[in-house]
């Protein structure tokens, strides 16, 4: 015991959070450009000064350890500043979805209960003001892009004390909150710690081949962990982050050319628009693409072809485990292997590990896993089993130890005593050469509770009958998982994001009787 007490002076030596990383960048890379955003260009030393000032502003508005800061706006370098300043005061920062409706904003304000809201006037000012007036008109709202008659971000920064002041942090404490898809009828804010963000930043730095000479185009929405991790990887490596408020294909071409950017987050539809604009090679994009038509584009995470992640693309992840943290570039097949900072296993409903080849829920543990959901004690208790995080996703282990991602465990069919996951049956049917699209549902049965029914869109020219598809599953799955009923459709209903609308499929094809599942 005395020996342990003698080590106490070193406890503070090991405290290291995201705010400490900025301090070190300002020390070892003071004059390298860290941020580009329109007319704004800041070195790491200048960012450090601005973050010190913003931390003072937050303290002056009552923000302390464990308090929340909410961002209601589009992409901006100030999102990064707000995250770093929150790290310095021990707060939790959430970049909200700027496309949220007034009802969704109202929900987040009540749920997250921020001490300070950083908001945007351009494009979304009316809905933000309405949300403030309906919530707490006298609360601390700071307009980041300038607005007459409002408390303005840059005005506060200019007059704030730049003295660096932050206590050593516990790296396991939450820093970033990201609202994820709804469970039990409402979304939840997954809380990621300093430690998780630092590790994932390093993983992305290595995987995407980011160095201090790299430039990252932050064109994807910063309320997604995949985009934030690219930005943080670049920040960690000492590279340049170039921000755009929202996606404009010509603006992206212009900034790639002018800044000679090397990495980006660009969605496929935007690439097609960029190709149309650049059909005559108007813009030089050679710093990031092979040619003017961007023919080497493969995935939204754009990076050099020589990077480990591009050499072996693929993986599995979710916000709750720090993003893409089971990856093909780590080795193996299918989704690949977990990073060295994550344990994963395939388990049954009781959390017991299943044999190789069997489908079950992907469980994870380690410093990358979230600290839990904000303000969701019941869900947090439900999502942990025997010290492991339930991902609510299905997978299986291959003989070489790799993990196959099967699909979400969002709907379960109960046939007798057996649990059947539509995602697994759909994955099997999609390997049939006659299937263009498929949705598997449960239909009520007086004897078995439910039967498995497959709604299949056949490929043009396919004349396969129902039995062909049933037999295909019988040969590849446990017999009880195969469809008993097959019906054909011309198309499946889909939601705005392109995902099959299962509720509409159920309604149209007799689905129902589902058990309650986690």
Automatic annotation (TrEMBL):
| CDD domains linked | PtmA
Q: Which Pfam families match?
A: AMP-binding, AMP-binding_C
Question: Domain named AMP-dependent synthetase/ligase: which ranges?
Answer: 22-374
**Can you tell which superkingdom this protein's organism belongs to?**
Bacteria
Named from the GO MF annotations, one term is: acid-thiol ligase activity
Q: Where is the AMP-binding enzyme C-terminal domain?
A: 424-494
What InterPro entries is this protein classified in? AMP-bd_C, AMP-bd_C_sf, AMP-dep_synth/lig_dom, ANL_N_sf, ATP-dep_AMP-bd_enzyme
* PANTHER family on file: LONG-CHAIN-FATTY-ACID--COA LIGASE (PTHR43767), NONRIBOSOMAL PEPTIDE SYNTHASE PES1 (EUROFUNG)-RELATED (PTHR43767:SF1)
Q: What is the official name of this protein in its record?
A: Acyl-CoA synthetase
Species name: Henriciella mobilis
Q: What is the lineage of its organism?
A: Bacteria, Pseudomonadati, Pseudomonadota, Alphaproteobacteria, Hyphomonadales
């Amino acid at each position: 015991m005395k020996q342990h007490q003698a080590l106490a002076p070193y406890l503070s030596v090991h405290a290291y959070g995201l705010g400490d990383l900025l301090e070190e960048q300002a020390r070892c890379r003071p004059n390298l450009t860290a941020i580009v955003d329109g007319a704004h260009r800041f070195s790491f030393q200048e960012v450090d000064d601005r973050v010190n000032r913003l931390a003072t502003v937050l303290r002056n508005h009552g923000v302390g350890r464990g308090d929340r800061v909410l961002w209601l706006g589009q992409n901006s370098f100030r999102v990064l500043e707000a995250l770093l300043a929150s790290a310095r005061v021990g707060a939790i920062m959430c970049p909200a979805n700027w496309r949220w409706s007034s009802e969704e904003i109202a929900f987040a304000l009540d749920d997250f209960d921020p001490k300070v809201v950083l908001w945007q006037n351009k494009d979304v000012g009316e809905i933000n003001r309405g949300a403030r007036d309906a919530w707490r008109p006298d609360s601390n709202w700071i307009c980041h892009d300038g607005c007459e008659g409002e408390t303005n971000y840059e005005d506060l920064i200019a007059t704030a004390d730049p003295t660096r002041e932050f206590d050593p942090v516990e790296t396991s404490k939450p820093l970033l909150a990201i609202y994820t898809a709804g469970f039990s009828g409402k979304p939840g804010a997954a809380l990621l710690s300093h430690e998780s963000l630092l590790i994932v930043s390093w993983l992305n730095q290595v995987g995407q081949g980011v160095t201090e000479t790299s430039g990252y185009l932050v064109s994807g929405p910063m309320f997604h962990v995949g985009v934030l991790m690219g930005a943080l990887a670049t920040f960690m490596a000492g590279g340049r982050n170039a921000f755009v408020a929202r996606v404009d294909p010509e603006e992206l071409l212009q900034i790639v050319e002018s800044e000679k950017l090397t990495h980006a987050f660009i969605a496929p539809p935007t690439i097609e628009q960029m190709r149309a604009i650049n059909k005559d090679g108007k813009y030089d994009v050679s710093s990031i693409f092979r040619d003017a038509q961007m023919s080497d584009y493969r995935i939204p995470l754009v990076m050099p072809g020589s990077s480990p992640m591009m050499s072996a693309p693929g993986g599995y992840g979710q916000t709750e485990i720090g993003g893409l943290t089971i990856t093909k570039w780590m080795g193996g097949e299918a989704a690949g292997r977990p990073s060295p900072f994550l344990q994963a296993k395939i388990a049954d409903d009781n959390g017991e590990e299943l044999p190789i080849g069997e489908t079950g829920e992907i469980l994870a543990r380690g410093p990358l896993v979230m600290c839990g959901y904000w303000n969701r004690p019941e869900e947090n208790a439900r999502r942990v089993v025997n010290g492991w995080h339930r991902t609510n996703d299905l997978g299986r282990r291959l003989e070489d130890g790799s993990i196959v991602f099967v699909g979400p465990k969002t709907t379960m069919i109960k046939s007798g005593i057996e649990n059947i996951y539509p995602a697994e049956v759909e994955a099997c049917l999609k390997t049939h050469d006659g299937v263009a699209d498929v949705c598997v549902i449960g239909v009520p049965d007086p004897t078995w509770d439910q039967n498995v029914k497959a709604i299949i869109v056949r490929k043009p020219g396919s004349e396969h009958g129902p039995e062909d598809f049933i037999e295909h599953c019988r040969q590849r799955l446990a017999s009880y998982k195969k469809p008993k009923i097959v019906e054909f459709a011309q198309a499946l209903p889909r939601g705005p994001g392109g995902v099959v609308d299962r509720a509409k499929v159920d309604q149209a094809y007799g689905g129902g009787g589902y058990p309650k599942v986690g």
